Amino acid sequence: MKKTPLRLSVHPAIFLSLPLCRRAAMAGQLCLLLLTAALFTAGFDRLAQHNLYTIGALAEVINVLTLLFMFWVVQCAQLSSKSYGFLSVGLCIWLVSGVIDLMDEAYFQPWWLSRVEDSLRSLGMLATAWGVLLMVKQMYGAQIRLASMAMSDELTGLSNRRSFRTVLDTHAGEGTPLLLLDLDHFKQINDRYGHGVGDNVLREFSGLLRQHCPLDGVVARLGGEEFAIWLPGMLGGKARDLAEQIRLATEAMVSNDGVRFTVSIAVGISHAGEAVDTLIKRTDLALYQAKHQGRNRVELA
């Protein structure tokens, strides 16, 4: 089933589809602003000459409408509870100060109310800024997770083909070994035990590769039952020995589901000036030869 992409809609028609608490927040905010304006009307004297048609009053109206729109966007957005709370409270307080600032263009404002207005504005801006910071941290964390998902294999947690190719293109050098590995008769495991057991085999084999790979090496699942290891700084002879260790460890391994399996491995050593594609093709040909000659063996490219 095709998934609908996540997107932010601020159309007024979605009001009824918002959670009840957010609809209540929006309605409560509007009521609070109307109450603030009503208290001004009932509690303070009207100025003999109001300033509602000045540029300053127009700017204050725009400020209130902008803050009100920001408050609506926050209600529509999918945010963490902390960022939503700080943004909602901050904008609410900031809006009240904006309405007070607008009303004093037509009504007398005592000195103490000016102090209240300034304090509310500062407090609202501070809470809103903190909410924005939390929102940015949330977005940054989501971006990191998405980047990690894009560069890693979902089943095994190893690097995926794209990530591994980036490593090869960036760090390829003369004499650097490349291991290509392919589990033998893996299709038979899936057919006999089911894909769930097959996935477990892939995970457990991935753990084995992690254990044997040096700290500066890179292990990747290229797809299906195909894996690769990049071994910068390792001599060809040691890479051959490592491949044999992996082969023997795999042969002796019994999965948690009681499945035994083997692996065929090809070892390719990059030559001076050799393109990455050429190295991969040459090593892949050696892997084919290992398969053709009986599997469960290490073949040099």
Quickly list its features.
about 300 residues, alpha+beta, Alpha-Beta Plaits, 2 domains
Gist of the model:
This protein has 301 residues and is of the alpha+beta class.
Describe what this molecule looks like in 3D:
The structure is a single chain. This protein has 2 domains: 12-150, no CATH class; 161-300, Alpha-Beta Plaits. 60% of the residues lie in helices and 9% in strands. The protein has a 5-stranded mixed beta sheet with strand order 2-3-1-4-5, sandwiched between helices. With 301 residues, it is an alpha+beta fold. A hairpin with a 2-residue loop joins β2 and β3 (226-230). It has helices at residues 20-43, 55-76, 81-103, 111-151, 161-171, 186-193, 195-212, 236-252, 276-292, and strands at 177-183, 218-223, 226-230, 263-269, 298-300. α1 (20-43) packs parallel to α3 (81-103), α3 (81-103) runs antiparallel to α4 (111-151) and α7 (195-212) packs antiparallel against α8. The chain is elongated and about 100 Å long. The chain has 9 helices and 5 strands.
